[in-house]
Write a structure and sequence with these properties.
mainly alpha; 312 residues; globular; 0% strand; 2 domains
Length: 312
């Protein structure tokens, strides 16, 4: 068998490329955060920096799930946990960016629009704290108060995590499996996961969020194995990309509804108008998602005993 057909070669190359992408995005995030903290007029406004950084980490986590089949799981466990920590620690700041984008797209009365604008300005002052925490995390590493991993080990700065991952990929001996064989195995599992969560109702916000996560895993896995698997992986990647986009819009609306429901500092009339607009948007978005759930449920052959998963 030609070594180019081994799954570990494919995975190692993809993970090295993602580490490069994450490093570049991290520098962009630091530049934007520094400008925000200094309140510098005309400073960097790279709106996609944090998004790109988190996508690189998310792709790495998906590929590391696949890598468990080839390298020693215990040696990858700490790396997976550290990447998860950095993704979660930057989540609040990204959520705020998305909230602003979601509210800006609403068709609101002029007075309500102006009041929401003022409310967002007040929130922006609080977001400076999030920028400061993200800057410290990406520049200096996790604080001493950071939680430890399940095995009791402390979380390392991200660059040290990347060095550890590179050492595992380049120094450890992987299990030799063909890219075709492993690709079919992991795609079957990812597709089954999607089909199972697609049994839930589109009105279930938590379940649709879980389905979105499964679609991300399916997409990134399918894109990894497009070359060795061809048409099947290409079809799954395209289907997952479409559904991820629709479910992403649905999730953004659901999060905005949750945030606005708890919001203080908005008048009752404005709050009601915003929530009504968001709920109308959700109905429109859900109408796009619901028929596609039928296609999702047919991604794999299902047994009669299969039931929707339970959120715990």
């Amino acid at each position: 068998m030609n070594t180019q057909n081994f799954a570990h070669e494919l995975l190692a190359a993809a993970l090295h490329a993602l580490m490069t992408d994450a490093r570049a995005a991290r520098e962009r995030v630091l530049a934007v955060s520094a400008s925000a903290l200094a309140d510098t007029p005309g400073g960097p406004t790279d709106e996609e920096a944090l998004h790109d950084f988190r996508v690189a980490l998310r792709r790495m986590r998906t590929l590391l799930r696949v890598a468990r089949e080839l390298w020693r799981r215990k040696r990858l466990a700490r790396i997976e946990g550290e990447i998860r920590y950095h993704a979660q620690a930057t989540g609040a700041l990204r959520d705020e960016e998305v909230l602003r984008e979601t509210l800006a797209a609403l068709d609101l009365p002029q007075e309500a629009h102006a009041e929401v604008g003022g409310w967002l300005v007040r929130r922006a002052r609080a977001v400076r704290k999030e920028h400061a925490e993200v800057t410290r995390l990406l520049r200096d590493g996790p604080p001493r108060r950071a939680p430890t991993l399940p095995n009791g080990k402390r979380i390392r700065p991200l660059e040290r995590t990347f060095h550890a991952l590179a050492a595992r990929l380049d120094g450890d001996t992987p299990r030799l499996v063909s890219a075709v064989d492993l690709g079919h195995e992991v795609l079957d599992h990812a597709a089954h996961d999607v089909a199972t969560w697609a049994l839930r109702d589109v009105g279930d916000a938590e379940a649709m969020h879980e389905l979105r996560i499964r679609y991300k895993r399916l997409r990134y896995t399918a894109e990894l194995f497009t070359a060795p698997l061809g048409a099947r992986a290409t079809h799954l990647a395209k289907h997952a990309t479409r559904m991820q986009r629709h479910l992403g819009e649905l999730h953004d609306i659901d999060q905005a509804i949750l945030t606005l429901s708890r919001a203080r500092g908005l008048g009752a009339a404005t709050k009601g108008a915003v929530l009504a607009a968001l709920r109308a948007c959700r109905v429109t978005c859900a109408a796009k998602v619901e028929p596609r759930l039928v296609e999702a449920r047919s991604l794999v052959d299902r047994g009669q005993d299969d039931e929707p998963p339970t959120l715990v």
